[in-house]
Amino acid sequence: HLRNKALADKKLVTEPKTTKTGTTIVGLIYKDGVVIAADSRATGGSTVMDKDILKIHRLADNIYCCGAGTAADCNFVTLKMEAELELIKLNTGRQSRISTAVSRFCNMLFRYQGYIGTALIVGGVDVDGAQLCSISPHGNCSYLPYATMGSGSLAAMSIFEAKYQDDLTLEQARALAIEAIEAGIIHDEGSGSTVNLCVITNKESKMEMNVKSYNKRDWYNPNPYKFPKGSTPFFKELIFPKVDVTNVSDPNQKMIAE
């Protein structure tokens, strides 16, 4: 610590900055299955990049997961796992197992030592019953009755620790998941927009989009900005002739069009 502080004081190195994920994802086990939920705000630093992004990913018919972290990494690892589980199902002729998805996730993430920035909550129902697993970017996993991850996870966890009970009904579990995401949205600036959730049972899996919305824009400018022609200066103008590529008789003209 003293060495690093001395280097930073002499401005020989720049101190590392803390990376903020900007997400709230939760999951819990109830009497008949699993409920997982997530917000829908995507951020780049302090900028809201997308207000309606889907953070719940399908891995198999009976297994879904929520992802927090780098959006590209979350999409890549979940699409890869979905393909692997489908191939295993075709080869074995059996239902996909949650333990298979979790072990493969952990092996891949541990290999990259946290450089794949994705934190996952995997939930599903298989022959062993309803299961919920939290996976860190370093490949550590924990099977839990309820879990939260992302920058709003502490606010969401406070709701679970205060109100979670065994053998919740679907209505109670659904309301508790929504309340946990709501706590993350209110207390974390990186989470927001809407609540999406997925209910997984041994019979079916059901996605519910835009269950609850927050931070709606109530006012719109009735007179949008209008700039007169010529407001933006330019240095050069190029005009390209229009060519109809569907009906060209001259072969030279066709080559230009292609």
User: Helicity level, as a percent range?
Assistant: 25-40%
Can you list the strand order of the major beta sheet?
10-1-2-11-12
Series of H and E elements: HEEEEEEHHEEEEHHEEH
Largest sheet: 5 strands, antiparallel
Q: Which structural class should the secondary elements be placed in? A: alpha+beta
- Output mean pLDDT: 89
Radius of gyration: 24 Å
Strand content: 25-35%
List low-confidence stretches: 254-258
Strands, total number:
12
What characteristic shape results from the CA principal axes?
Answer: globular
Number of DSSP helices?
6
Spatial gap, N to C terminus = 61 Å
Give a structural overview:
Helices cover 31% and strands 28% of the residues. It has 258 residues and is an alpha+beta fold. The strands form three sheets. It has a five-stranded antiparallel beta sheet, covered by helices on one side. β8 and β9 (141-143) form a beta hairpin. α4 (153-163) runs antiparallel to α5 (170-187). The longest helix is centred in the first third of the chain and has 22 residues, at 71-92. The radius of gyration is 24 Å and the shape is globular. The model is unreliable at 254-258 (pLDDT under 50).
In short:
The chain is of the alpha+beta class. It has helices spanning 2-9, 71-92, 98-111, 153-163, 170-187, 251-257; strands at 25-30, 33-39, 42-44, 47-50, 56-60, 63-69, 118-126, 129-135, 141-143, 146-149, 194-201, 205-213. The strands form 3 sheets. The protein has a 5-stranded antiparallel β-sheet, with helices on one face. The protein has a 5-stranded antiparallel β-sheet with strand order 5-6-7-8-9, covered by helices on one side. It has a two-stranded antiparallel sheet with strand order 3-4.
